């Protein structure tokens, strides 16, 4: 059974209680505690606001793999994929059996429950947990660091979401997934630990690129001395970063979570079967790089001040007070020759009339229409529908 076949049966193991990005600690806690006895649950500690941070251990093998998600409270795709994986591992199939026999997995879903509660990146101390490895001023950071020290995993999966404005070099498609073997020093050196992570990623890409062609990029390779992934790599855990980006018409990332799940599963299969050992760092570095050549909205052939230009518009996504939804604030991010760019939504302004003003770096506040209808309209940064 291959990854593509498994995804055709995705509905049989999808965790159906998680339907958008805004679930909370109280939503996942029952899911953790209702897992069958082969999943060993342990409370590792508490967040700033007293919410439990739990680990789930599964598998009988010798290869230790640690997976953690939602260090950033508004990055929920990895958590959804983990709960899908819990369900998949309970099914009778060759892949689950292989992983169970060869690996021992330690999951820490929702490292930052306080951030998830209000759908923000940072914890209740307003600290970015993923920039807290050195000082460990956050209880969540201390818990994560101690978990790795106690478990001593050979491999780690660091699960995140990235902005939807990353694209893939040459394809101009959204970077729906991005992978990285984080650097462990400023020189971006490659030792055996980091090379193992690169080889696993090359194996993952070979499988996922068939399912999601031209939508997978290699994340920015820059050493961050405060980050957990970089430091776990330095400590001897071959660390694999997976980032969920954007996909057209998928704002709640319900399609992306399938590809995210498939990435984790293919990585675990690579580790369990040791197929990664056949990969090379050349294959890793041949993965297309992430670029920023995509907008949320692109308008072509618009005449401004007597000149025909393109206009790139992006939104900032901001949480509402209840932490259960967001609003989008649109602004003008570029004007001019954008022929090298693409967007989630592209409009042709040829023959259209512009009412209002388009001003660089200001809130979108205009209406574009033709003889038949309004094509696109904004008021004070809000998209009018």
From TrEMBL:
The keyword Hydrolase applies. One of its GO terms (molecular function) is carboxypeptidase activity. InterPro entries: Peptidase_M14. It comes from the Bacteria. PROSITE patterns: PEPTIDASE_M14 (PS52035). Keywords: Carboxypeptidase, Hydrolase, Protease. Belongs to the peptidase M14 family. This is M14 family zinc carboxypeptidase. It comes from Pedobacter helvus.
């Amino acid at each position: 059974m291959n990854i593509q076949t498994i995804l055709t049966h995705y509905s049989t193991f999808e965790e159906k209680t998680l339907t958008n990005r805004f679930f909370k600690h109280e939503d996942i806690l029952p899911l953790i505690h209702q897992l069958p006895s082969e999943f060993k649950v342990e409370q590792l500690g508490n967040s700033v606001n007293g919410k439990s941070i739990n680990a789930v251990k599964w598998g009988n093998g010798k290869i230790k793999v640690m997976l953690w998600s939602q260090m950033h409270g508004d990055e929920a795709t990895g958590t959804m994929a983990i709960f899908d994986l819990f369900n998949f591992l309970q099914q009778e199939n060759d892949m689950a059996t292989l992983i169970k026999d060869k690996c021992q997995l330690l999951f820490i879903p929702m490292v930052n429950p306080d951030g998830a509660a209000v759908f923000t990146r940072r914890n209740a101390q307003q600290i970015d947990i993923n920039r807290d490895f050195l000082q460990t001023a956050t209880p969540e950071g201390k818990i994560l660091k101690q978990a790795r020290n106690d478990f001593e995993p050979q491999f780690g999966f660091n699960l995140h979401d990235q902005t939807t404005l990353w694209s893939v070099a040459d394809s101009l498609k959204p970077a729906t997934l991005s992978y990285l073997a984080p650097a462990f020093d400023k020189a971006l050196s490659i030792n055996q630990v980091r090379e193992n992570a690169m080889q696993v990623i090359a194996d993952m890409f070979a499988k996922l690129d068939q399912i999601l062609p031209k939508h997978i990029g290699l994340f920015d390779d820059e050493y961050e001395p405060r980050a957990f992934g970089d430091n776990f790599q330095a400590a001897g855990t071959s660390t694999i970063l997976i980032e969920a980006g954007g996909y057209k018409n998928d704002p709640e990332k319900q399609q992306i979570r399938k590809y995210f799940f498939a990435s984790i599963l293919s990585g675990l299969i690579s580790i369990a079967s040791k197929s990664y050992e056949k990969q090379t760092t050349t294959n890793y570095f041949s993965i297309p790089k992430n670029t920023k050549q995509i907008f949320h909205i692109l308008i072509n052939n618009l005449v401004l001040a007597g000149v025909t230009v393109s206009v790139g518009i992006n939104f900032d996504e901001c949480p509402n007070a209840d932490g259960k939804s967001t609003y989008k604030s649109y602004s003008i991010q570029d004007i001019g020759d954008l022929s090298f760019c693409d967007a989630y939504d592209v409009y042709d302004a040829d023959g259209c009339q512009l009412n209002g003003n388009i001003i660089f770096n200001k809130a979108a506040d205009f209406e574009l229409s033709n003889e038949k209808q309004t094509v696109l309209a904004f008021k004070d940064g809000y998209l009018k529908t």
